[in-house]
């Protein structure tokens, strides 16, 4: 009679299932998270104690660089399309379909209506290299206000957020506040980062 | 955990040709490690990159409102005026606008023991704490960060009544005089 051998436990474990789970979760998170699109300008926002989070939709953002240049961006693709159509009609930009497409690709537009056609007809790599003049806003030319109004017209529920750099000088912010007050725009959001 | 397969080295010439032991299963452990590593990385980077925002409502500047405000008599002790200047310097005063001088501008800083303490002290001393108003006056040399910092202080100290206003010529004069002096004098 043969001795009963104890069953040998092999120390290995089947990792396949665990591997599947890991990659499944990974895929899920990558798919659901929205990547921040390439920003035209790097802006270091000041910090605040505010706990309010920036929403993905319903926000039109005016960015002000340390040099006082203005950029305008809309995060939500559907809103952006509506905004583009309104802007195109209001400012008589006469953008072609190809130019509209590249407009939707750019996260933040930093050129006024005079140069926007030539800017949008550049290819992607040239566009990143281009030195942008910013959307004009001064006492003689308040084009940025037209952009804000176009956004408000296209998205009545939308809110305006202002994203300034730590080093942005106050006059650049002040002229924006003043010009917005002239068109009865009193409520904004200031974008900051948590402390 | 991992099976280490030692390859038989130094085959003897006359040795038997061993057939490879067919494990059939590749070791999945490093792949799991990689998967979870990437997963962790993506979770951390996506949740922390979301910026915050703060609300800011500016006053309506239409004419009727100005008349309304002029009627209201605001006692000096119920207000504090904060002037933000060059190089992150900050001043406050509690004085009639017409006769503010460089001596009335008290210098402080953006820290908790600086401007926050001053605001709280002045509010406690106010005749009517409910209508205590903070007037924020950023000069042209202030930065956006200064503005956000002060708005932050409003939130921290719980002041609901505040306004961002431009400098008057008298204040401008006093400020120019004050900023020309080095800090602490």
Tell me what the structure shows:
- The complex is a heterodimer of chains A (195) and B (185).
- Chain A has seven helices and six strands; from the N terminus they run H-E-E-E-H-H-E-H-H-H-E-H-E.
- Chain A is of the alpha/beta class.
- Chain A has one domain.
- In chain A, strands 1-6-5-2-3-4 form a six-stranded mixed beta sheet.
- In chain A, strand 5, helix 7 and strand 6 form a beta-alpha-beta unit.
- Chain A is elongated.
- The model of chain A has no long low-confidence stretch (mean pLDDT 80).
- Chain B is α/β, with parallel strands linked by helices and 185 residues long.
- Chain B has a domain of 106 residues: Nucleotidyltransferase, domain 5.
- Chain B is 37% helix and 15% strand.
- In chain B, strands 4-3-2-5-6 form a five-stranded mixed beta sheet, with helices on one face.
- In chain B, strand 5, helix 4 and strand 6 form a beta-alpha-beta unit.
- About 4% of the residues of chain B have low confidence.
Show the helix and strand layout.
The complex is a heterodimer of chains A (195) and B (185).
Chain A: H1 16-32, E1 47-48, E2 59-64, E3 70-74, H2 77-90, H3 97-105, E4 108-109, H4 116-120, H5 124-129, H6 143-154, E5 159-164, H7 170-182, E6 187-194
Parallel strand pairs in A: 1-6, 2-5, 5-6
Antiparallel strand pairs in A: 2-3, 3-4
Helix pairs in contact in A: 2-6
Chain B: H1 29-48, E1 52-57, H2 63-71, E2 79-84, E3 90-93, E4 106-108, H3 112-125, E5 133-138, H4 144-157, E6 162-164, H5 169-180
Parallel strand pairs in B: 2-5, 5-6
Antiparallel strand pairs in B: 2-3, 3-4
């Amino acid at each position: 009679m043969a001795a009963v051998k104890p069953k040998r436990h092999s120390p290995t474990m089947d990792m396949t299932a665990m591997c599947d789970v890991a990659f499944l979760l990974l895929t899920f998170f990558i798919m659901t998270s929205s990547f921040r699109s390439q920003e035209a300008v790097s802006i270091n926002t000041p910090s605040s104690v505010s706990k309010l989070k920036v929403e993905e939709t319903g926000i039109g953002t005016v960015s002000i660089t340390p040099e006082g240049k203005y950029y305008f961006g809309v995060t939500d693709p559907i809103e952006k399309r509506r905004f583009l159509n309104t802007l195109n009609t209001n400012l008589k930009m006469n953008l072609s379909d190809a130019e509209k497409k590249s407009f939707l690709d750019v996260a933040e537009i930093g050129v006024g209506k005079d140069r926007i056609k030539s800017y949008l007809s550049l290819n992607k790599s040239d566009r990143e290299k281009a030195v942008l003049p910013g959307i004009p806003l001064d006492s003689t030319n308040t084009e940025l206000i037209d952009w804000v109004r176009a956004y408000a017209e296209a998205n009545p529920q939308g809110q305006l957020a202002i994203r300034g750099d730590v080093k942005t000088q106050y006059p650049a912010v002040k002229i924006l506040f003043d010009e917005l007050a002239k068109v009865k725009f009193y409520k904004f959001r200031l974008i900051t980062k948590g402390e | 955990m991992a099976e280490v397969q030692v390859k038989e080295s130094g085959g003897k010439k006359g040795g038997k040709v061993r057939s490879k032991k067919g494990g059939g299963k590749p070791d999945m452990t490093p792949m799991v490690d990689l998967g979870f590593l990437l997963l962790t990385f993506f979770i951390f980077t996506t949740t922390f990159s979301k910026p915050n925002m703060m609300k800011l409502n500016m006053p309506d500047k239409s004419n009727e409102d100005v008349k309304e405000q002029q009627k209201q008599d605001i006692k000096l002790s119920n207000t504090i005026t904060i002037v933000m200047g060059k190089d992150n310097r900050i001043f406050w005063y509690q004085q009639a606008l017409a006769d503010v001088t460089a001596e009335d501008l008290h210098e402080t800083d953006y820290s908790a023991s600086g401007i926050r303490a001053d605001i709280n002290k002045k509010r406690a001393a106010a005749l009517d704490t409910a209508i205590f108003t903070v007037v924020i006056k950023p000069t042209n040399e202030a930065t956006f960060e200064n503005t956000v910092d002060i708005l932050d202080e409003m939130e921290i100290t719980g002041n609901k009544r505040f306004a961002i206003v431009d400098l008057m010529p008298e204040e401008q004069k006093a400020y120019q005089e004050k900023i020309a002096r080095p800090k602490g004098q």
